[in-house]
Amino acid sequence: MPQDYSERKFNYLFDWFDHTRDGYLSREDFEQIASVFAAQAPDHDQKNKDAILAAFLRWWEVLVEAGAADSGQRVSRERFQAAMRSHIISDEHFERIIFGIIDALMDALDNGTGKLTRDEYIAMYDALGIPPEVSAPAFGQLDRDQDGVISHAEFRNAIDEFYRSTDPEHGGHWLLGTPHEHSVP
Questions:
Q1: Backbone angles phi, psi at 4, to 5 degrees
Q2: 53 pLDDT above the threshold of 60
Q3: DSSP state, residue 171
Q4: Predicted confidence band of residue 177 (pLDDT cuts 50, 70, 90)
Q5: What DSSP string describes 86-114?
Q6: Contact 156/115 with Cβ under 8 angstroms?
Q7: pTM of the prediction?
Q8: CA nearest 178: which of 118, 127, 135, 128?
């Protein structure tokens, strides 16, 4: 995908993850975003809460292993961008990190159907800090078979397209709202 397009998406992620709002990512930021995601699981669902935390901490560890962290264990925007392209979206790490988060999140939200309704999708992203006016338009783009729900497979496909697609027209670029207008929630 064009560098500037992936750069915009990864900038959006950087800003979303920077909970301390200091312009760097740290392990603390990853723990905080993990807790926001884990909070989507029911209180009794420790298995998926732990899986989400473990996947976010793997993400942090891969950033460190990739040399993205400075001597203060902080990752700048530029180093995050580079490590996302060189490591995180690689086949070696993508399944364990990104799909690890998504699979645990879907398992936690699954009410036995293996699917997310429009209302569940919007509520999930609202709780993650993405407002409904951003996430609502995405639902129709991600519901590929237009059956009114997003299946686990459709969600995985959208995640893969969001992070790794070379085609800016793929529906996965709508994952966090309008693909060409990502802004920090």
A1: -65, -30
A2: yes
A3: G
A4: low
A5: IIITSHHHHHHHHHHHHHHHHHHH-SSSS
A6: no
A7: 0.86
A8: 135
Structure tokens at 146: 């237009």
| DSSP per-residue letters across 11-59 | HHHHHHH-TT-SSSB-HHHHHHHHHHHHTTS-TT-HHHHHHHHHHHHHH
Contacting residues for 83 by C-beta, under 8 A, at least 6 apart: 62, 63, 66, 67, 68, 75
CA distance linking residue 32 with residue 2, whole number of Å: 30
Architecture label for domain 3-174? Orthogonal Bundle (1.10)
- The distance in angstroms from the start CA to the end CA of the chain is 24
Both tokens assigned to 139: 């639902």
